[in-house]
Each structure stands twice: as structure tokens, then as C-alpha cells.
Amino acid sequence: MTILPVIPTSPDQPDAVAIRRRPSMPPRHLADLDLAARKAAVTALGEPAFRAKQLSTHYFGRLVRDIDEMTDLPAATRARLTGDLLPTLLTPVRELACDDGATRKALWKLHDGALVESVLMGYPDRVTACVSSQAGCGMACPFCATGQQGLTRNLSVAEIVDQVVYLAGVAASGAVTGSPPRLSRVVFMGMGEPLANYPRVIEAVRRLTTPAPEGLGLSQRHITVSTVGLVPAMRRLTAEDLNVTLALSLHAPDDDLRDELVPVNQRWKVAEVLDAAFDYAARTGRRISIEYALIRDVNDQPWRADLLGKLLRNKLAHVNLIPLNPTPGSKWDASPKPVEREFVRRLRETGVSTTVRDTRGREIDGACGQLAAGELTEASAGGAAADAEVAQ
Q1: pLDDT class of 177 with cuts at 50, 70, 90
Q2: At a CB cut-off of 8 Å and minimum separation 6, what does 133 contact?
């Protein structure tokens, strides 16, 4: 939404309506730049080029986000570099934990007052970070809390990466009960539609997967990028030299229902979206994850399971069924377990790999579709709170 300022007609006459500021992108940060650009930045500040590697080693290698903790740097150097390369991007508002500490949710305030949330999920063999790519979301999916709040703005590369670096530090501290002390996976399934912030999300993926100290050194195969089906961006992703997993939030196999559940389907229909997904799978050899929230008496009918199975039969795809999680004011509920089991049975009968997603995090509103910042953003000047859909 474009917000136009009110221009006063007289310097002596105050405005009757307060001026609402357009949300702004944050200041430049180390994580916005590749190593060559970091070297150029530090030399422009009068520091030797090797300081770029020092900063990068602290940030990406040691997961240190506070320049005051980088004690091998002279105090004067730290003071010069703070504002230009390590400004504070995420200010913690609150952090909640459940599942005996294995699931942790963080709420952040950004420099302009916008709010986003991230989730860390620990398992016996891995630790996964679920991060936001936008403040709010413009896709308007009616069963998702975020989709009902609208879009505030895109996040910068560094705002995305900084969520991951923080959560990697939490994992390294041993705070995630019963899990390895190293972050191994990142899913772009938090607040926002990642492919609607395409250039910054792709740059963030490259930063996360470039070896340390230039990046975090994660495997591309352990990164998942979700989309509701923005076909041009999916085609663009197919042309990238990346091996990330593509997750398609389908939620209905037929256009009549998907037009309602995923409004972008009114522009790109099921067949076109699946064609783009299958082309990505063919190009990369990576199996597509089909995300499907099961909603009681809405999309859980046996015939829809059969149709979905027909669409996916003999394709490089896996169905991830998501029991709908309750959100305030929602008119919909999760499908009963017998209906869920029958849906799974029918899909598997067609040879389609199918699993049901873990719904951990409900106690802290951290399960899929539940995350809600629950506080007003300064940037919205009294507008709605920022909410989030986070997949577990």
C-alpha cells in the first residue's frame, strides 16, 4: 500500500492528519555484502582490508553479532566500523520456548518498528531455523494469520541473514534440548512470500551457503524456499545455479477452491504452477515439497486426495500434509484424524510419497500458520500487527 504524506498548506497551521511514513530499508550491514565489497567498505573507512576478514570470521564463523565482543579489534576500529558495517538490525522483543526447550520462537523489532518472528526447531539429528523474508505478507491466504495483515515491507539481505546467525548462535550455545549444537537447515517459511522478495532472498541464500568466513557455510540442499506459486519467480529460480529445495504451498488440487484459499491462483492456475514446479525438479533433480494444509470439510475430501495423487503421480514430488493449526477468529479447523489418515492412504496408494507435518510449538503459537507478532508496528502508525505463517 502506498502512503502519501499530508503536505501542510501553511507553516503556521498544523496538519489535521498525522503524517504516516513509508517503511524504510535498514542501514547497510556486513551481511549485505560479499567479501570483496566488505574489503572495499573497510578501506573506505580508513581501515586495512584484512579487517573485512576479521569481521566476517567473527560474524559468520563465531556467530558474534555484537562488535563490542570482537576484542581482537582495537576500540577505535570498533567504533568506526559499528555504524557502517554492524548496525543493530534486530532488536529482541521477546523469546518463548516449549517442547522442553526444543522449539523456540523469537519476536524482533526492526529499525523502523516493523515486527517479524523466527523459530528454531531442534530434533535429535538436526536443528532447523525458520525465518521471515518480509514483514507481513501480501498474498492474503485466508487461513493464514499473516495473510490477513497485509505487507509492511521486504526485509533486506542482512535482516534475513541476521535471523539465521542469531538462531545458529542459540543452537551453538546448547540451548536447544536434545539436539546437535549446530544449525544445519534453514527454511524460508516464516513471515512473507519469499519469491515476492526475490533478489534479496536469493542473495541471502548465497550468503548462507558460501563457505565461512564469507558466509555461513550451510549446504544448499539443506535450504528450503517456499512459495504460494509465483510462476515467473519460480521460472527465474529454475535458471539459478542453486540446489535448494522448492516448497509449493498448494492447499488445493482444483482451481475453484485454490482461487479462494490461495488468491494468487486467480492469476496462475494449478496446472501452470505445477508445471513450473516440475520444471524446477527436472532441472535440479531436487524433489518438490507440496505443502497442503488439511482443513475440515474444505479441502480434505477423498476426491481431492485422488485428484492430487493423479496430478503428482510419477513426479519428483513429496506431499507434506499440515494439520491446520488454530488461529484467533478463524472459521476453519483441522481435519479429524480419521479423515487425515484416509487422505494419506489415498495419496500413498497412487505412489505419492506423503507425510504429516509435526505440529510442535502450538503452546507458544509457533506452529504452522499461528505465529503472530501481536503488537502494533511503529511503521504502521496504529495499523494491524504483523503475523506470520511458519512451517514446522
Answers
A1: confident
A2: 154, 155, 160, 188, 190, 191, 192, 193, 194, 197, 200, 201, 204
